[in-house]
Amino acid sequence: MNEIETFLEHKNVRPTAMRILIYKYMAQQDTAVALTDVENAFAKAERTTLYRTIKTFEEKGIVHQIEDGTGTTKYALCEPGCNCEIEQDLHLHFHCNNCDETVCLTQHKIPHINLPDGYLAEDVNLVVKGICEKCSNQSNQ
User: PANTHER family per the record (predicted)?
Assistant: First the structure.
């Protein structure tokens, strides 16, 4: 059994061929991906299978969802040891207004936010928008 299969089983996800392929695809990406990106990468696969795989990965803490303000939900693999808890696993996301890519800035954690009594956080998403390193380097050349 390979590393990905073992990881998926550890997350209580049956390691089907499609799930392994989608995990490998996402692991190779430097940016967050939209469902349409996954669909384009696996054009011969059923859309519902791809959607269900992403949703299963999200439910099991393998990927996290990013709302970057573009109107398209994007997904990125979680870091090793992440369980997507609001109290400890939140990090910044950066959306480039030039190339339209969104990346996780996992080394930049979001500090714990104390909400008033009676408020219960279910999701936190902090997206910084601007020009990414790649695009700013291109314009400086």
Answer: HYDROGEN PEROXIDE SENSITIVE REPRESSOR (PTHR33202:SF22), ZINC UPTAKE REGULATION PROTEIN (PTHR33202)
